[in-house]
Amino acid sequence: MADQLVLGYWGIRGLAQPLRYLVEYLGLPYEEKRYLKPEEWFGGLCQAPFNTHVLVNLPYIKDGEKYVYESAALYVYLAHKANRPDLLGSTPDEQVAVAQVRGVIQDALKGFFHLITLPEDQYAAKKEEVYANEVAWLIERLDKFIDGKTWAAGANLTYIDFGLFELEETLKAFHPESWAKFANLQKHHQEFSNIPQIKEYQASGRFLAGPFYPPGRFRWGF
Known about the structure:
Layout: E1 5-10, H1 17-26, E2 30-35, H2 38-42, E3 60-63, E4 66-69, H3 71-81, H4 92-116, H5 120-145, H6 159-174, H7 176-179, H8 183-193, H9 196-202
Parallel strand pairs: 1-2
Antiparallel strand pairs: 1-3, 3-4
Catalytic activity: RX + glutathione = an S-substituted glutathione + a halide anion + H(+)
Enzyme class: transferase
Keywords: Transferase
Protein backbone atom coordinates (compact mmCIF):
# COMPACT_ATOMS: atom_id res chain seq x y z
CA MET A 1 0.00 0.00 0.00
CA ALA A 2 1.28 3.43 -0.96
CA ASP A 3 0.30 4.98 2.36
CA GLN A 4 2.21 2.42 4.42
CA LEU A 5 5.44 3.23 6.14
CA VAL A 6 8.36 0.93 5.46
CA LEU A 7 10.69 0.10 8.35
CA GLY A 8 14.00 -1.17 7.04
CA TYR A 9 16.51 -3.09 9.13
CA TRP A 10 18.41 -6.32 9.42
CA GLY A 11 16.44 -9.49 10.16
CA ILE A 12 17.27 -9.22 13.86
CA ARG A 13 15.78 -7.35 16.81
CA GLY A 14 18.69 -5.00 17.41
CA LEU A 15 18.12 -1.25 17.13
CA ALA A 16 14.82 -1.70 15.31
CA GLN A 17 12.91 -3.64 17.94
CA PRO A 18 11.88 -0.59 20.02
CA LEU A 19 10.80 1.07 16.77
CA ARG A 20 8.68 -1.95 15.91
CA TYR A 21 7.00 -1.67 19.30
CA LEU A 22 6.46 2.05 18.77
CA VAL A 23 4.91 1.82 15.32
CA GLU A 24 2.62 -0.95 16.57
CA TYR A 25 1.64 1.11 19.61
CA LEU A 26 0.88 4.11 17.41
CA GLY A 27 -1.25 2.04 15.04
CA LEU A 28 0.52 3.36 11.95
CA PRO A 29 0.14 1.17 8.86
CA TYR A 30 3.56 -0.23 8.00
CA GLU A 31 5.49 -3.08 6.54
CA GLU A 32 9.00 -4.27 7.20
CA LYS A 33 11.92 -4.64 4.85
CA ARG A 34 14.22 -7.10 6.58
CA TYR A 35 17.69 -7.48 5.11
CA LEU A 36 18.74 -11.06 5.79
CA LYS A 37 22.17 -10.95 4.15
CA PRO A 38 24.78 -8.17 4.14
CA GLU A 39 24.83 -8.07 0.35
CA GLU A 40 21.10 -7.35 0.26
CA TRP A 41 21.75 -4.04 1.99
CA PHE A 42 25.26 -3.07 0.93
CA GLY A 43 24.66 -4.14 -2.65
CA GLY A 44 21.92 -1.54 -3.00
CA LEU A 45 23.80 1.44 -1.60
CA CYS A 46 25.18 2.38 -5.01
CA GLN A 47 21.69 2.47 -6.50
CA ALA A 48 18.77 4.88 -6.25
CA PRO A 49 17.42 6.05 -3.92
CA PHE A 50 20.12 5.26 -1.38
CA ASN A 51 23.00 6.59 -3.49
CA THR A 52 21.43 10.06 -3.31
CA HIS A 53 21.29 10.17 0.49
CA VAL A 54 24.20 11.35 2.63
CA LEU A 55 23.04 9.89 5.97
CA VAL A 56 21.89 6.51 4.66
CA ASN A 57 21.92 3.87 7.39
CA LEU A 58 19.93 1.13 9.09
CA PRO A 59 17.35 1.36 10.51
CA TYR A 60 15.40 3.67 8.24
CA ILE A 61 11.81 4.64 7.62
CA LYS A 62 10.39 5.23 4.17
CA ASP A 63 7.28 7.41 4.10
CA GLY A 64 6.17 7.86 0.52
CA GLU A 65 9.20 9.34 -1.21
CA LYS A 66 10.79 10.46 2.06
CA TYR A 67 13.52 8.52 3.83
CA VAL A 68 14.53 9.10 7.45
CA TYR A 69 17.68 7.59 8.96
CA GLU A 70 19.23 7.18 12.43
CA SER A 71 17.20 5.52 15.18
CA ALA A 72 17.09 8.63 17.39
CA ALA A 73 15.52 10.60 14.55
CA LEU A 74 13.03 7.84 13.78
CA TYR A 75 11.43 8.11 17.22
CA VAL A 76 10.92 11.83 16.67
CA TYR A 77 9.54 11.29 13.19
CA LEU A 78 7.08 8.61 14.27
CA ALA A 79 5.84 10.62 17.26
CA HIS A 80 5.06 13.61 15.06
CA LYS A 81 3.68 11.40 12.27
CA ALA A 82 1.10 10.05 14.73
CA ASN A 83 0.47 13.49 16.27
CA ARG A 84 1.93 12.25 19.54
CA PRO A 85 4.68 14.76 20.40
CA ASP A 86 3.98 13.96 24.06
CA LEU A 87 5.95 10.75 23.53
CA LEU A 88 9.07 12.91 23.24
CA GLY A 89 8.43 14.30 26.72
CA SER A 90 5.58 16.58 27.76
CA THR A 91 7.73 18.92 29.85
CA PRO A 92 11.37 20.05 29.80
CA ASP A 93 12.05 17.84 32.82
CA GLU A 94 10.61 14.80 31.03
CA GLN A 95 12.63 15.55 27.92
CA VAL A 96 15.81 15.74 29.97
CA ALA A 97 14.94 12.46 31.73
CA VAL A 98 14.32 10.81 28.36
CA ALA A 99 17.75 11.92 27.13
CA GLN A 100 19.43 10.68 30.31
CA VAL A 101 17.81 7.25 30.20
CA ARG A 102 18.55 6.94 26.50
CA GLY A 103 22.24 7.56 27.13
CA VAL A 104 22.43 4.88 29.81
CA ILE A 105 20.56 2.39 27.61
CA GLN A 106 22.99 3.03 24.76
CA ASP A 107 25.97 2.44 27.05
CA ALA A 108 24.47 -0.80 28.38
CA LEU A 109 23.81 -2.05 24.85
CA LYS A 110 27.41 -1.31 23.92
CA GLY A 111 28.42 -3.53 26.81
CA PHE A 112 26.17 -6.32 25.59
CA PHE A 113 27.65 -5.98 22.11
CA HIS A 114 31.15 -6.29 23.57
CA LEU A 115 30.00 -9.49 25.26
CA ILE A 116 28.75 -11.16 22.13
CA THR A 117 31.83 -10.20 20.14
CA LEU A 118 34.37 -11.56 22.61
CA PRO A 119 36.73 -13.98 20.86
CA GLU A 120 35.56 -17.54 21.23
CA ASP A 121 38.65 -18.59 23.15
CA GLN A 122 38.16 -15.75 25.68
CA TYR A 123 34.41 -15.84 26.10
CA ALA A 124 34.04 -18.29 28.99
CA ALA A 125 36.79 -16.64 31.01
CA LYS A 126 35.80 -13.02 30.41
CA LYS A 127 32.02 -12.93 30.02
CA GLU A 128 31.16 -12.32 33.68
CA GLU A 129 33.89 -9.70 34.07
CA VAL A 130 32.69 -7.81 31.00
CA TYR A 131 29.08 -8.08 32.14
CA ALA A 132 29.93 -6.70 35.60
CA ASN A 133 32.14 -3.88 34.30
CA GLU A 134 30.15 -2.79 31.26
CA VAL A 135 26.52 -3.76 31.83
CA ALA A 136 25.48 -4.62 35.38
CA TRP A 137 26.26 -1.30 37.06
CA LEU A 138 24.37 0.59 34.36
CA ILE A 139 21.33 -1.65 34.83
CA GLU A 140 21.52 -1.01 38.57
CA ARG A 141 21.44 2.74 37.94
CA LEU A 142 18.41 2.44 35.69
CA ASP A 143 16.62 0.33 38.28
CA LYS A 144 17.24 3.01 40.92
CA PHE A 145 16.36 5.87 38.57
CA ILE A 146 12.88 4.58 37.79
CA ASP A 147 12.08 3.76 41.42
CA GLY A 148 8.76 5.41 42.28
CA LYS A 149 8.09 6.48 38.70
CA THR A 150 5.11 5.34 36.65
CA TRP A 151 7.24 5.25 33.51
CA ALA A 152 10.94 5.66 32.77
CA ALA A 153 10.91 9.47 32.51
CA GLY A 154 8.15 10.14 35.03
CA ALA A 155 4.36 10.07 35.03
CA ASN A 156 3.91 9.75 31.27
CA LEU A 157 4.81 7.13 28.70
CA THR A 158 7.56 8.31 26.35
CA TYR A 159 9.47 6.74 23.51
CA ILE A 160 12.30 5.80 25.85
CA ASP A 161 10.02 3.26 27.55
CA PHE A 162 10.09 1.30 24.30
CA GLY A 163 13.88 1.21 24.36
CA LEU A 164 13.98 0.36 28.05
CA PHE A 165 11.58 -2.53 27.49
CA GLU A 166 13.85 -4.00 24.84
CA LEU A 167 16.85 -3.65 27.15
CA GLU A 168 14.84 -5.51 29.79
CA GLU A 169 14.01 -8.23 27.28
CA THR A 170 17.69 -8.51 26.41
CA LEU A 171 18.71 -8.77 30.05
CA LYS A 172 16.06 -11.43 30.71
CA ALA A 173 17.39 -13.50 27.83
CA PHE A 174 21.11 -13.06 28.45
CA HIS A 175 21.39 -13.02 32.22
CA PRO A 176 18.14 -14.16 33.90
CA GLU A 177 19.77 -14.54 37.31
CA SER A 178 20.74 -10.87 37.23
CA TRP A 179 17.32 -9.83 35.93
CA ALA A 180 15.69 -11.31 39.02
CA LYS A 181 17.43 -8.69 41.19
CA PHE A 182 15.85 -5.62 39.60
CA ALA A 183 12.37 -5.16 41.05
CA ASN A 184 11.74 -1.73 39.50
CA LEU A 185 12.69 -2.87 36.03
CA GLN A 186 10.53 -5.96 36.46
CA LYS A 187 7.57 -3.75 37.35
CA HIS A 188 8.20 -1.55 34.33
CA HIS A 189 8.48 -4.61 32.10
CA GLN A 190 5.16 -5.96 33.34
CA GLU A 191 3.36 -2.64 32.90
CA PHE A 192 4.72 -2.15 29.40
CA SER A 193 3.98 -5.70 28.27
CA ASN A 194 0.37 -5.22 29.38
CA ILE A 195 -0.19 -2.29 27.03
CA PRO A 196 -2.87 -3.74 24.71
CA GLN A 197 -1.04 -2.91 21.47
CA ILE A 198 2.18 -4.45 22.76
CA LYS A 199 0.45 -7.57 24.03
CA GLU A 200 -1.33 -8.05 20.70
CA TYR A 201 1.88 -7.52 18.74
CA GLN A 202 3.87 -10.02 20.78
CA ALA A 203 1.18 -12.64 20.22
CA SER A 204 1.05 -12.00 16.47
CA GLY A 205 2.97 -13.42 13.54
CA ARG A 206 4.53 -10.00 13.00
CA PHE A 207 6.56 -10.28 16.20
CA LEU A 208 10.25 -11.05 15.81
CA ALA A 209 11.23 -13.24 18.76
CA GLY A 210 14.88 -13.36 17.76
CA PRO A 211 17.72 -13.24 17.21
CA PHE A 212 18.62 -10.21 19.27
CA TYR A 213 22.00 -9.85 17.56
CA PRO A 214 23.54 -11.17 14.33
CA PRO A 215 23.71 -14.98 14.21
CA GLY A 216 27.23 -16.26 14.74
CA ARG A 217 27.99 -13.54 17.28
CA PHE A 218 25.12 -14.33 19.61
CA ARG A 219 26.66 -16.55 22.27
CA TRP A 220 25.01 -15.96 25.61
CA GLY A 221 21.99 -18.16 26.27
CA PHE A 222 21.05 -19.04 22.68
